[in-house]
């Protein structure tokens, strides 16, 4: 039986604590609302997990791109769609 890991909203913003909680078995414990995206923390944690050795000089441009991508994703995610809209089965040009 998995032991439930008690977490706070602040814990969800800390990638190291998120990874530790995941390893401890709290894989399905999702916060009510997602924490704000932190591109600096994401890049710092994701690079080693992906096996990437990133030169520190490149971290600022990488996190700048992640901020742009996050802003674009937020526009898409926040676009209101009526419940009756169905996904297209395929797209044709």
Automatic annotation (TrEMBL):
Annotated protein name in UniProt: DUF4089 domain-containing protein
Pfam families: AtzG-like
